[in-house]
Specification:
4 helices; three-stranded antiparallel beta sheet; Hypothetical upf0131 protein ytfp; 39% strand; alpha+beta
Length: 166
């Protein structure tokens, strides 16, 4: 078994099941915190045709997400999902906090080639991320913060599209 911290679409056990090929909700430990990082949409996914989440080191911030304890047999499939072999994301070992408990050497994924500015998520990605956050019990205030961040990126995207057409 290995610990895995999800902060994007993998927070949703239903979406994670789709790519790992088996139920993952049974491996959810629960909501957890990654200190010293912040979220950002600094990667473009051609598969999803939108901006996707990344974590960026920032000593003054923290990221809420879902802590899983997955069997080793799912390790390769998780790397595949995150595009490790295509150099999209790379594994990073981090420390996670969950209700005062400290988890060391937890796997998460970080974008290799970050974009200069954030890209908006698609409606589908927006919904999967939010569904995972709510389903796995992330704090309500954080869910609203996540919702507002994604919504603002989408609004900016549509305003820029409208200017180009006009």
């Amino acid at each position: 078994m290995f610990y895995y911290f999800a902060y994007g679409s993998c927070m949703c056990p239903v979406d994670l099941k789709r790519s790992l090929g088996e139920k993952t909700h049974i491996y959810v430990i629960g909501p957890a915190t990654l200190k010293g990082y912040r979220l950002g949409f600094y990667s473009y996914s051609s598969l999803r045709n939108c901006g996707v989440l990344d974590v960026i080191k920032d000593e003054n911030s923290s990221v809420e997400g879902v802590l899983y304890q997955l069997p080793w047999r799912l390790s390769y499939a998780l790397d595949e999902r995150e595009g490790v072999h295509k150099n999209w994301y790379q594994q990073e070992l981090v420390s996670i906090y969950k209700h005062g408990q400290f988890y060391k050497d937890v796997r998460t994924y970080v974008v290799v080639d970050k974009l200069a500015e954030e890209l908006a998520p698609s409606d589908w990605y927006f919904n999967v991320v939010l569904r995972g956050a709510v389903t796995c019990g992330l704090p309500e205030q954080y869910c609203w913060k996540l919702f507002n961040h994604m919504h603002q990126l989408q609004q900016r995207h549509w305003e820029n599209q409208t200017r180009r057409v006009a």
